[in-house]
TrEMBL record:
SUPFAM superfamilies: P-loop containing nucleoside triphosphate hydrolases. May play a role in septum formation. InterPro entries: AAA_dom, DNA_Partitioning_ATPase, P-loop_NTPase. The lineage of its organism: Bacteria, Bacillati, Actinomycetota, Actinomycetes, Kitasatosporales. This is Chromosome partitioning protein. It comes from Streptacidiphilus jiangxiensis.
Amino acid sequence: MSFDHPVVVEPLPGPRLPAPVVQPTGVHETLADMQDSDTPPLADDTPIARAAQAAVTAMARVGDPLPRPAQTRVMVVANQKGGVGKTTTTVNLAASLALHGARVLVIDLDPQGNASTALGIDHHAEVPSIYDVLVEGKPLADVVQPVIDVEGLFCCPATIDLAGAEIELVSLVARESRLQRAIAAYEQPLDYILIDCPPSLGLLTVNAMVAGREVLIPIQCEYYALEGLGQLLRNVDLVRAHLNPDLHVSTILLTMYDARTRLASQVAEEVRNHFTSEVLRTSIPRSVRVSEAPSYGQTVLTYDPGSSGALSYLEAAREIALRNAEAEAVAAEAGYATGAATGVYAQQPRMIDQHSTMEGNR
Ligand SMILES: Nc1ncnc2c1ncn2[C@@H]1O[C@H](COP(=O)(O)OP(=O)(O)OP(=O)(O)O)[C@@H](O)[C@H]1O
Ligand SMILES: [Mg+2]
């Protein structure tokens, strides 16, 4: 078990988390502060002992079922900026949700095949993959594989063939909606489908945006974090206007947060100011264990379940599930049936205009 960085988590509504504790040092709250009030007092009241206790508490929640969405939530993990944590977020959130009892499919839509690697799924050139689904019209069911370490988690791998798909798709019928059609024809019951996009806004990402209702944007807490975000949001708007009226940005997750740097907290603050309701309270800390896990073909949830990275992803998953349950409850009360999280979030003013302004101000 390692405690490489404190887990940054802001107070989350819900019965299981106590009110945040203000640190005497003024630094961010850690999972150590999340001990339930009925947790027995610690024999050794040091930061490490508190962190250990918090890890035990958080791990005890694994297996606690989270509220399941009324219908499958298809979440597109996108940001055309490279290396911001899209793949890491996709696989670790997916594993976290599955560990909480959900049935989750990860679709690797990046020719790099990083999500397949991280889930321990073979993706050499001969393996049936998402390329066959998109270009050859193969059923999704023929290429999906179970992830060995995590019950309820499945992966549709990507092979290097996918690198040519952007060009091959151009001449195909319904080139933007091929993934959406494949998902619609997939009959296995699922709570979540998480689509790991490549770092571009080409036809592969458009296919993901046509297939999903929700966009999840991981934002790395560093100086250029917001650059290009306006373009991504404009693309979401375009797809919504022309191809998928349900599409919206439902979730923003701050990644690689280094609580020791002022820059990280400044970036986090700026993002939170502009996207008040979309940003998860939980941020993912920079953590060596998170970056090591893929080289063992594992998510950090199985590689080092007690690490700060694992605990943060578990907490982020919890937040994603609870927010949606709240949105569904509000929608049900308002008396109209919704498609999952769209109920509340889709009614919010569109953020793109605000963000364009923000970009213009930079
Ligand atoms: N919380 C974290 N702590 C430490 N390293 C991390 C963390 N999250 C991601 N990384 C590392 O940062 C690098 C980029 O992450 P990742 O591959 O998830 O980004 P990406 O957005 O999917 O990249 P690409 O655009 O190339 O697909 C990887 O080496 C990953 O291990
Ligand atoms: Mg990636």
